[in-house]
Amino acid sequence: MPLGKRSRPARVARSRRRSQPSDIAIIGMACRLPGAATPEAFWTNLVQGVESIAFLSNDELRAAGVPPNVLGHPHYVKASPILESPAGFDAAFFDYSPAEARLMDPQHRLFLEVAWETFEDAGYDPLGDKGVVGVYAGAGGLVLCSRVSFKLNLTGPSVNVQTACSTSLVAVHLACRSLCDGEADMALAGASVVRVPHLRGYLAEPGGIYSPDGHCRAFDAKGSGTLFGSGVAAVLLKPLAAALADGDRIYAIIRGSAIDNDGGMKLSYTASTVEAQARAMTEALARAQVLPDTIGYVECHGTATVLGDPVEIQALTRAFPAHTDRIGFCPIGSVKSNLGHLEQCAGLAGLLKATLALHHGAIPPSLHFETPNPRIPFERSPFFVNTALRPFKRGSAPRRAAVNSIGMGGTNAFVVIEEAPPPPKRARKPRPLVVLNLSAKTQEALAVHVANVRGALAAKDAPDIHDACLTANSGRHHFGHRFSAVGRDRAELLDQLDRFVASDGGQVGLEAKRRRRPIVFLFSGQGSQYAGMGDALYRGEAPVRDTLERCFALFKIAGIDLRKALFSDDETRLTRTFYAQPALFALEVALTNLWAAWGIIPDTVVGHSVGEFAAAVAAGVFSLEDGVRLVAARARLMNDLSDGGGMVAVGTRADTVRTLWPDGAHDLAVAAENAADSTVVSGSKAALAPFVARCRRLDNPSSSRSGRSLEPSRSRRPASAGSRRSRATRSRIRHRRSTGATSSAKPSASAQPWKPPRAQARSCWKSGPAPP
User: Fold this and answer.
1) Do 258 and 284 form a contact (C-beta atoms < 8 A)?
2) 438 near 430, Cβ under 8 Å?
3) pLDDT classification of 510: cutoffs 50, 70, 90
4) By three-state DSSP, how is residue 83 classified?
5) What residue spans of 27-104 are helical by DSSP H?
6) Between the N and C ends of the chain, which has fewer C-beta atoms within 10 Å?
7) Which of 32-41, 262-271, 462-471, 687-696 has the highest mean pLDDT?
8) Which of 341, 359, 608, 735 is catalytic?
9) Which listed residue (381, 609, 682, 702) is catalytic?
10) Average pLDDT, the chain
C-alpha cells in the first residue's frame, strides 16, 4: 500500500486552467482484478499487454465440480477471468468470527478489503475522522454499501446502485453529484462481482454474446462475443479544491459525467441505441466544458459483440463531430480485451485504466485487434484502435480521456477525466529527525508490514521520506502491535527496518487491548514566554506559520504589532504584558494546529490565565477572531495598570512562608500552593520588599499582578467581552482557576457568554499538570 500522501497543506499552484466547482479529484484506488490484486499490478499488466484470462484444464474443471456432460459439450469454452483468492478474507481484521465470515457473501468480504485499501491509498485512516463520507457501489444483486458504512463508520449517503454492466460508472457519476451538492466531503464509489462457482467455463452458443474462443476481440472483424468474470474495485473521490488544499495525491480529475437510458424505442430490452449513448456523451462533454478534439483517449465499453461495437462507435462519432471534423486523431481501446467483461465492475475497470494512463502519461494497447469490424467506418470517424503502448501526448490543453459504459437494460454512463494539475512546489526545510510508526493487529502481520514498507522505501521510485512518515503516522490506523523508528534520514530508517526484519519480529512492542488513553493539552499563562520562541517552528512548519500569520493580522487590527514583538532581538519586549499575553496565546493556538496536522487531537484542554483563552479556541468555544479580540483587550487593560503588584515563588510549604512575613504584612497573601514545597505569595511591592529580604526570591520578570492590583480592570471590561458568541465544544475544557470543573456541554440559547473566571489572588501558573 503506497506511502507518501503529502507532507503538509500547501498553497495551490496556478494551473493552466481554472478549476470548476464540479471538478472532482480521484485521490485513492484499490482493486482485485483478474491477474492483479493492486492498481500497480494492473497497470503493469496493461503496459505489457497481458491477457488475464485463465484457460482451465479438464482436471481443474472436474475438481471444481463441472459435470462431465457439460465439460464434453462442443461449445463449452474452458476459459474464465478469475481472481487469485476469491475466498480469502481476513475475518479477524474486521472483527468477524470465522462463522460469520463463512456466511458472508464473498462480494461483501472482498469489497470491505478493497474499501479499506482505497482509504489507505489516499492517505486517510479508514477508521479515523475523515469528515462525512458517502458510499455508492453495486454488486451482483446484493445490498453492499451499508455494510461498508457500518464497518468504517461512514456517515454520508450510502446508496446501492444496480444498472447491470454500467453499475460502477453510474456509481461514480452519482458520487460526483453528491459531492457537488455538498452531501459529503468525500465519496467511495465501486463495485464487487465474485462469480460462484469461481472456476467455471461457459457455453458459447453460436450467434450469442459469448466469445467462442475465450478471447474478447473488441472492434475486430473476428469479434463475436465476450466472456464474463469477477472483479472488485473502488475509487475515493473528493472535490478538487478540497483535495488541493489538503495536499492530497491526485491521480486524475473528473471534469464531467452524465447518465441516461435508452427508453423503449429500441428493438429489444437488451439492445442499445445510438441516440441515447450519444446524448449521454454530449451532455458529459458539455458539463466538463471541454471540446471533443482535446480528448486524447476513449476507453470504450467494447464487448466485441457483432452489433454492440458498431453502435458504440457510431454514437461516439455522432457526439464528437458536433464540435470537430478531424479524422483519426483519437485512440480508443477496451480493457475487456485484457480482463473480459467484469459485469457490474466493468465500468470501473475502464475508469482505472484511463486514470492510470493519464497518471503515467502512456496509453496501453488494446489486445486482439487486427482487422476492423466491417460495420465500423473508422476511416470516416475521429477514432482508431490503439494496438501498441504509446505516449499520452499533451497538446495546448491538459491530457484528457473519456470512459463509456453501457448497461443491459439501457442505462448509459459517460465520464470525462483530465490529468491532475502539477503538484505545488514546496519550499520545505527538512526536519532534523523523522519518525516512522507502523502497526498491525498481530505480530506476524506487523513483520510482513515492516518488510513491505522497507521495500517501498528502498525502491527507486520511493516517496519522499517526510511524506512517507506523515502518511504512516497520521494516514494509517494504529493497532496494538507496533514498531517505531527515529532517524535523521532514509538510510537510518532503513537500517532500523532491516534490523527489525532480521530479528524476525522480535522487537515488536505489544500494547494491551484497551481504550486509547485520553490526550490532554495544558496551555500555560504568562511567565513561560521567552525571546525568539516559536521562531524555528515558524520557519519550518506550515501550520505554525499559517496560524501565526493569521494572528499577526488580527492583532494588528487590534493595535498590537505582534510580529515585531515575537521575533524581535529586543529581549525586554516580551517582558511587557502588552506583548507577552498575545504572543503566548498566538503560539499556543499555532502549536495546537501543528499537533492537529500530525493527527493529535486533545480530548481535554486545560488552561491557566491567558492559556484559558487558547484552550477555549482549541475546544471550539471561541473563534480565533474572538480569542484575539479578548486577549488584546485583556493585555491592554493589564498593561495600563500601575506597576504596584507582584508575585514571589518560594520553595517551601505555605505554613512556613507565613512565619516569614514581616509584622503588619496585611497586603500579602498566599496566592497558590503549587505543591508541598512550592508556594506563591502575592501582594504590593511595598509589602513584598521586606518579605523577600527574609527568603530567597525567585524573580518573575512578567510582574504578574496581584488580586488587588487587578480591581480597576474589572470595571473597564471591553464591550467585546460580552458580545462574542459561545459555540459548541470540540474538546472538554478544564479551567485552571476556581474549582477546576470540566465543561463539555453545548451552550444553550439562553446561556450567558462563556468568560474566564474572575482573576483571583490565588491564581498562578505552574510548569506542570494542573491540579484536579
Assistant:
1) yes
2) no
3) low
4) coil
5) 39-47, 58-63, 68-71, 98-103
6) C
7) 32-41
8) 341
9) 609
10) 85
Give the pLDDT confidence of 343-399 residue by residue, as tens digits.
Answer: 999 999 999 999 999 999 999 999 999 999 999 999 999 999 999 999 999 988 999
- Is 478 assigned a catalytic role? no
The amino acid at 102: R
Would you place residue 736 in the very low, low, confident or very high pLDDT band (cuts 50, 70, 90)? very low
Is the pLDDT higher at 750 or at 215? 215
In the structure grid, which three cell numbers stand for residue 621, read together?
468555544
Per-position b or e across 110-124, b if 16+ CB within 10 A of its CB: bbbbbbbbbbbbbbb
Whose cell is 490503439? That residue is 386
Q: Determine which one of 165, 216, 300, 469 is catalytic.
A: 165
Burial class for 502, CB neighbours closer than 10 Å (0-12, 13-18, 19+): exposed
Query: CA–CA separation, 301 vs 166, rounded Å?
Result: 9
Rounded to a whole number of angstroms, the CA Rg of the chain reads 33
163: closest CA among 200, 130, 137, 185?
Answer: 137
Residue 301 designated active-site: yes
Cell numbers for 565? 514583538
Region 546-554 average pLDDT: 95
Q: Is 359 in the active site? A: no
Nearest to 706 by CA among 641, 770, 751, 615: 641
What is the reported pLDDT for 175? 98
CA dihedral 594→598→601→606, nearest 10 degrees, is -40
Q: Which residues contact 489 (CB under 8 A, 6 or more apart)?
A: 434, 465
Q: Label residues 179-210 b or e (16+ Cβ within 10 Å = b).
A: beeeebebbbbbbbbbbeebbbbbebeeeebb
Nearest to 171, CA basis, from 152, 146, 145, 149? 145
Dig out the grid coordinates for 353 from the structure: 485504466
Cell numbers that stand for 356 in this block:
492510470
Phi, psi of 132 (to 5 degrees): -85, 120
> What sign has the CA pseudo-torsion 584, 590, 594, 599?
positive
Return the C-alpha cell found at 455.
Answer: 521495500
Per-residue pLDDT for 755 more than 70?
no
pTM: 0.77
Q: Which three cell numbers stand for residue 142?
A: 446484493
Q: Evaluate whether 191 touches 139 at the Cβ level (below 8 Å).
A: yes
Burial class (CB in 10 A: 0-12, 13-18, 19+), 497: buried
Cα–Cα distance, 191 to 234 (Å, whole number):
7
The closest alpha carbon to 367, from 302, 416, 429, belongs to: 302
Q: Is 481 in a helix, a strand, or coil?
A: strand
Any bridge partners for residue 258, and if so which? 414
Annotation says 165 is catalytic: yes
Task: Using alpha carbons, list the distances in angstroms from residue 56 to 198, 214, 262.
Answer: 12, 11, 38
Asked if the model's pLDDT at residue 759 lies above 60, the reply is no
Distance CA(573)–CA(579), nearest Å, equals 7
pLDDT of residue 78: 97
- DSSP type of residue 364: P
Q: What is the pLDDT of residues 245-298, one digit of tens each?
A: 998 999 999 999 999 999 998 888 888 999 999 999 999 999 999 999 999 999
Interatomic CA distance for residues 284 and 287, integer angstroms: 5
Of 301, 359, 368, 449, the active-site residue reads: 301
DSSP state of 294: G
Measured CA to CA, the distance from residue 726 to residue 623 in angstroms comes to 9
560-611 per-position pLDDT tens digit: 999 888 887 777 788 888 889 999 999 999 999 999 988 788 999 999 889 9
Report which DSSP code applies to 87: T
C-alpha cell at 381: 470517424
Give the residue carrying C-alpha cell 488587588. Answer: 708
How many other CB atoms sit within 10 Å of the CB of residue 14? 10
Q: Would you state the cell numbers that stand for residue 172, as one nine-digit string?
A: 461514480
What is the spatial distance between Cα 686 and Cα 19, in angstroms, rounded to a whole number? Answer: 67
How many Å is the maximal CA-CA distance in the chain? 117
